[in-house]
Amino acid sequence: MSENSTDKNDRKDRIRERYRGINADELEVIQARVKENIRKDNVERRVAVYARVSTEDPNQTSSYELQKNHYTDFVNSHPNWKLVKIYADEGISGTSLQHRDSFLEMIRDCEAGKIDMIITKHVSRFARNIVDCIKIQRDLKKLNPPVGILFETENLFTLDEDSEVMLSIMAMMAQEESHTKSEIMNASIEMRFKRGIFLTPTLLGYDKDEDGNLVINEDEAKIVRLIFYMYLYGYTCQQIADTLTGFGQRTKKGNETWSAGTILQILQNERHCGDVLARKTFTPSYLDHKSKKNRKDRNQYLHRDNHEPIISRDDFIAVQRLIANAKYGNKGILPELHVIPDGILKGYVSVNPRWASFTASDYRAASNSVSDKEVSSPVQVTAQSGDFDFRGYEVARAEFFDTTDRIGVTISADMVKFSTSAVRKFGKETYVEMLVHPGKQIFAVRSCSSENRNKIQWSKIRGGLATPRIISGAAFLPSIFDLFEWNINCKYRMIGLYRKSETDSIILFNASDTEVLIPPESLDTDTMTPFQSKGRKKSVLGYPAHWAESFGSNFYIQAQAQEMASLMQDNDIAAVGTPYKDSELQPTSADDIQKNIEALMSDMKQEADND
After folding, report:
1. Can you give the residue ranges of every domain in the chain?
2. Do the beta carbons of residue 585 and residue 314 sit within 8 Å?
3. Alpha helices in 311-470 (DSSP H)
C-alpha cells in the first residue's frame, strides 16, 4: 500500500470518530418554547378584525354589518384576546390596495406595534391580488414581534411554518375569481352597448324619467348654455367658473363653488348636444382598476340624437376644436379662415398659427371660393425686332449656388425658420403674416401689424438689426405639409422672391421646387435624387428629380414671374382677407353668442338679487 493511500485512510478514520459524537448523558438539553396555540393559549393578544364588502350597494350593507357583529362576538369569546379595532372598507375592490384606507391604516398600526393578530373571514376578503397577499403576510411576519393573520374560513394562520404554500394557492384562486368576474362584467357591458343600452350617470342640465331616460331640467340647462356660449366667446374655464360662483349657481352635486375642471368636464360631455358616446375610457387591468382613455383600444358606440339636446351639435364641435387648440395659445372666439378675394394675391389664404383644426382641404376650399373658374390659355412669347432671342435659354436655379446670404426659409414638421437676409429685408418689422395659395403651391410672408390675429413674431431686434426667431409650428404645419404633399419626416428649404411697395413687403416661396433634407431611412430614390454635401452626416440633401433635366426655369417664364411681382401695388400687398365659412359647420354667430350671454347673465343676476 502506498504512502498516499495510508494518509487518506487515516483522515477517513478521524472523520468517522469525530462524527460518532459524545455520550448523550454528557449533554444538557435546553427545551424550546412550546408553540403557542392561538385559540387556547393563555397569552394575551391584541386582535384586529378586517371586514370588506366589494360594492356600495345598500343590499351589501347586511353583509358588512354581519361581518362586524360576528367578529366582535368571536373575539369576545376568547378571554385572553382584546379587540383593538374593526377595520372596515366598504365599496372597495380587493384586487388593489388603492383607496383601501382602513386596510392601510391597519397595516400601519401593525408596524407601530399595536396589533398582534389580524382576523378576517377568508383570503379573498383580505386581498384578491396574489402578489399583495404574499408580500403583506411576509412583511407582517418579519415584524418584532411578528403579526399573524388568521383566515377563518380556510382555518389558516400565517405564523404556522407550512402556511405560505397553502396561502399562495388560496390567493391565486381568489385572484382568478376576480379575473373571471371582470371578464363576465366586460362581456355584459359590451352586450348592453351593442343594443344601445347605455349607462346614464347624473348630468348637469338633465333629470331622469321613470325609465332612466334623460329629460331637460330647464333651470340647469341655462347654466349649461351659458358655459358653452362663454367658452365660444373666448372666456377661459376659470373665468366661467368664477362667474357662476359669483352668481351663486350650484353644481349638480349642490356645490356653490365651481372649478375650472368641472367646467371642462361639462364642455367635453357630448350628452349636452343629444349624443351618447359609450366607452370613452376602459380599464386595462382588473388588478389595479386604473382607467385609461380609449384610443381605439376597445369598441366605442356612438348614438346620435339619443335625447333632446341643450346646445347644438355644431356648437359642441366648435367647442371641442377650441379646447384642442388651447394648448397652442389660441384665444378668443372660434377662428375663421380668411381668403383674399381679389387683386394680385387673389386666392391666398391667411395661415392661423395657433389653430390645428384647419385641414389642407379647408385651405383648398377657401382658396377655390374666390378663384376664377376659367382656365387661362398659354402665354405666347414673341421676340420683338432688335431683341435678343432667349428661347431655349434658362435662368439657373439659385439653389445650385451658395445660399448662405439669400432670402430663404427652412420648414420642418414642427418649426419654421427664415434666413437672416429674409428678416432684414423687412427692417425692424418683427411681425409677419403667413399666406398660402394651394393651387399655385406658393408659401408667402408679408408684413403686418401687431394687431393682426394671425401674426407671428419671426425676428427680434438686437443691436439695431433683425435676427431670425424660430417659429413653433406644431399647430399648423401638419396641414401645410399635407397641402404641399411633403414628407413629414423631412426638412424643406426654399429660396424666396422679395418685393416691396411704399409701405409693405412680401416674400414668395415656390413650394413645388425645394431642397429637401432627408433622413437616410426616409430617402426615396424614385422621387428624390440625393446630392451629398461634405460634413452632412445626419441627413441627405436632395432635390426634385426633374431638376436633373435642366439648370433652371425658361427665361421668359422667369421674366414674366418677375414682371408679375413688380406689378404689385400698395393695396395689393396689403389686401385684407375676407372670412370663409365652412358650410359643413355652422356654430352660433358671435353676435348671437354675445346676446345670449347677456340675456342669461341678466336672468342669473336677477335670481341672485331675489335670493
Report:
1. 45-178, 206-328, 349-373+388-580
2. yes
3. 313-325, 360-368, 420-425
148-151 β-sheet, strand order: 81-90, 45-53, 117-120, 148-151, 156-157
Query: Quick one: pLDDT at residue 78?
Result: 86
| Count of other CB atoms within 10 angstroms of residue 391 | 10
Residue pair 484/456 in contact (Cβ under 8 Å)? The answer is no
Q: Which CATH superfamily is domain 206-328 in?
A: Putative Large Serine Recombinase; Chain B, Domain 2 (3.90.1750.20)
Evaluate whether 236 touches 275 at the Cβ level (below 8 Å): no
Question: Domain 45-178 carries which CATH code?
Answer: 3.40.50.1390
Asked if 476 contacts 482 with a C-beta cutoff of 8 angstroms, the reply is: no
- What number of other Cβ atoms are within 10 A of residue 159's Cβ? 18
Q: Read off the amino acid at residue 464.
A: G
Backbone angles phi, psi at 314, to 5 degrees: -65, -40
Residue 6, judged by CB atoms within 10 A of its CB (0-12, 13-18, 19+), counts as: exposed
Alpha-carbon distance of 78 to 39, in angstroms, equals 8
User: What was the pLDDT predicted at 163?
Assistant: 80
User: Residue 305: CB partners within 8 Å, gap ≥ 6?
Assistant: 274, 275
pLDDT of 377 reads: 45
Residue with cell 411681382: 565
Residue 43: alpha-carbon gap to chain centroid? 58
pLDDT at 541: 65
Question: What is the pLDDT at residue 109?
Answer: 95
Q: β-pairing, 117-120 with 45-53?
A: parallel
Name residues of the chain where pLDDT drops below 50. 94-97, 374-384, 386, 388, 390, 394-396, 399, 533-536, 555-570
Q: Report the relative pairing of strands 455-457 and 515-518 from DSSP bridges.
A: unpaired
